[in-house]
Fold:
Amino acid sequence: TNFLWPSSDNGSNWQADTARLVQARDAANFYVDKYGNQHLIGSGSFGVTWLYKKTQGNNNFDLDTAGLKNGHVGPYYQVKSFLSDDNGNLYMAGGGNASLLTCWRRPIAGGFWVPDTSGLPGFEPITYLTRELNHNMVATTADGIYYHHAGSWHNIPLPSTPGGGYLAVNSVAADNSGG
Structure:
């Protein structure tokens, strides 16, 4: 199981970095927060998704599953995005297997993952996360765009399409101008 290969010399040498990733068979998502902590989603046997964290100065990845039922996000749950709001929270978003739990949040320093789904459409997986100038999170689902503010998600109306067709959203960029 060698799927992380960092290089510290611009690619002249590579070293496998999989210490303690025992349940994971491959890496599905990887994120380094502003403190240098590494966050990894790895899929394991029977479609189970495992979360890991490697802190600065630690040589090992440790399970990062506090607050998650059965110690993982569930069978066939796909994590599509990890992102910090730069205000002390780490978000994990995705969905699958008819799960209502499409967004999770915990303090960046560690602690318990808690569902953060107030205002989101049920069963609709989050496909992408970004943040805007004021560190508020913005999420996309197949049905729309949602803005996280004051503890809940709020729908941003999509433009209407000519002829009333269906408009799918796959990603979004925040312009960071406050608009």
Summary: The longest strand covers residues 26-32. The chain has a mean pLDDT of 79.
